[in-house]
Specification:
The complex is a heterodimer. Chain A has helices at about 15-25, 35-40, 80-85, 85-90, 95-100, 105-110, 115-120, 125-130, 150-155, 230-235, 240-255, 265-290; strands spanning about 5-10, 30, 50-55, 65, 70-75, 135-140, 145-150, 155, 160, 165-175, 180-190, 195-205, 210-220, 225. By secondary structure, chain A is α+β, with helices and mostly antiparallel strands. In chain A, about 50% of the residues are buried. A five-stranded mixed sheet of chain B has the order 2-1-5-3-4, sandwiched between helices. Chain B is elongated and about 50 Å long. Classes of the chains: A alpha+beta, B alpha+beta.
């Protein structure tokens, strides 16, 4: 099918984009990479009255080191650039590891890092990864800006706290402490397909090999990315053992998720996947932390 | 009244100037405005890969880009590869290895593999598999396509 008619704006700067968004109000929708939005428009599931295309705003595309050792990534940076950037790989190996699972190379060359987060697809990898990495997000509007944590941005499937006159401008990732390891596990029916379930983990060990911190996110098994509380309760301050991973997996699979049955998988199967993937992801992440990340 | 936007798009080395609706997809611009029917439209939501073209040298989905967004950019379609008398080495390899039957998906595979082979002149089979994981073929079972890509890599590096 083809999209319904819409009006189109292609600002050349962030200021011009914010002016346009402010004028359009509820009629305006930001077009980033368009790899989800245009597909939804082709199906007429999305019918925005006007698009504000950010593809002619070069100042939104960058990967810059922060003074604290992290990275600031402009919202229009293509997923493919993040996937292949040596600084990203060095500081946040989780990102290239995850990127391989995001659709296909042709989609990743066009799709954007910020756009995927702001789209807040519960089956999308990057919203979950932003929560796992505890990303700080810069939201800008005409004459205003604010910072919000990824977990506070995403409030439902395809729903965020970004107002119609605002846009996600930058994603800031804080440096990992020493002895941090990460891992991503996903099961889908085919390469590049929707995750039936997925798990991302970032863990840190202290000098005595006890778990100092853990961020475990369960994906595609609820309306939003789920940050496991049980993982912290069971693991922090203890020796990370296979039995402990099993306990976390069991607790996560039985009490922390609300999987749906759809054409991709049954709820029961998704629960089983979470049980398996949590244990696998934690074992791998702690192994990497032990080896120094 | 329908609002039209002026575009100037370089397709296969020639600049075309047209007035288009914002909603006109790049795939439809190529087929309906320019009559370049080599770019095939399968699913129109980014899954099948048949509509893959090069956008400033990178393989992308032409069904997930509006033609107005391509203004000022360089597009290459399958028509730029070879002619029946003088095939591109990749097309030659597809023919020799029987890497197509109905041919519907073929332009997408070719436009995905051309930049891939230029950047990875000696890929492993697994690298080829990963490169084409965004293209669906319902005829060949893919093995012949992987063989063709390997054959093409030999042809391309020996020329």
């Amino acid at each position: 099918m083809k999209p319904v008619k819409f009006d189109y704006y292609a600002p050349a700067s962030v200021d011009e984009a914010l002016d346009t968004l402010a004028e359009l109000g509820y009629d305006g929708k930001v077009l980033a990479g368009g790899q989800s939005l245009i597909a939804a428009m082709n199906f007429r599931m999305a019918r925005p009255a006007a698009l504000v295309d950010l593809n002619n705003v070069p100042e939104l595309s960058y990967i810059n080191p922060t003074p604290e050792g992290g990275l600031a990534i402009g919202t229009m940076t293509r997923v493919y650039q993040v996937e292949h950037d040596p600084e990203v790989a060095k500081r946040f190996p989780l990102l290239p590891e995850v990127a391989k699972f995001i659709a296909h190379s042709q989609i990743r060359r066009r799709g954007t890092f910020g756009g995927a987060i702001a789209h807040a697809d519960p089956a999308g990898q990057l919203p979950s990864i932003a929560v796992t990495m505890d990303a700080n997000l810069l939201i800008r509007g005409k004459g205003k800006e604010r910072w919000v944590k990824a977990a506070d941005l995403i409030i439902g499937p395809f729903m965020t706290t970004i107002e119609p006159d605002e846009m996600l401008a930058e994603v800031v990732l804080s440096a990992n402490p020493p002895r941090t390891g990460s891992n991503y596990q996903q099961v889908s029916r085919q390469s590049g397909g929707y995750a039936q379930a997925a798990v991302a983990s970032i863990v840190t060990l202290d000098e005595n090999n006890l778990c100092k911190a853990v961020r475990l996110v369960l994906m595609s098994v609820g309306e939003v990315p789920i940050l496991s509380q049980k993982a912290s309760q069971i693991l922090v301050g203890h020796v990370p053992t296979a039995d402990a991973f099993k306990a976390v997996a069991e607790a996560a699979a039985t009490s922390e998720i609300d999987p749906a049955t759809d054409l991709h998988a049954t709820a029961k199967y998704r629960r089983n996947l979470i049980r398996v993937l949590v244990a696998r992801s934690l074992a791998e992440a702690f192994g990497r932390a032990k080896r120094g990340g | 009244m329908t609002k039209l936007f002026p575009v100037s798009i370089n397709v296969n080395g020639q600049v075309y100037e047209r007035q288009v609706e914002a909603r006109l997809l790049l795939s439809d611009f190529l087929r309906h405005e320019l009559g370049l029917m080599g770019t095939h439209v399968g699913c129109e939501h980014g899954i099948c890969g048949a509509c893959t073209v090069l956008f400033d040298g990178e393989a992308v989905r032409s069904c997930l880009i509006f033609s107005v967004q391509a203004s000022g950019h360089e597009i290459r379609t399958v028509e730029s590869l070879g002619t029946p008398e003088n095939l591109h080495p990749l097309q030659e390899a597809f023919s020799e290895k029987h890497a197509l039957q109905c041919g519907f998906c073929t332009p997408g595979f070719l436009m995905t593999l051309v930049p891939f082979l230029e950047q990875n002149p000696h890929p492993t089979d697994d690298e080829v598999r990963e490169a084409i994981d965004g293209n669906i073929c319902r005829c060949t079972g893919y093995e012949k396509i992987i063989e063709a890509a390997q054959e093409a890599s030999k042809k391309m590096s020996s020329r």
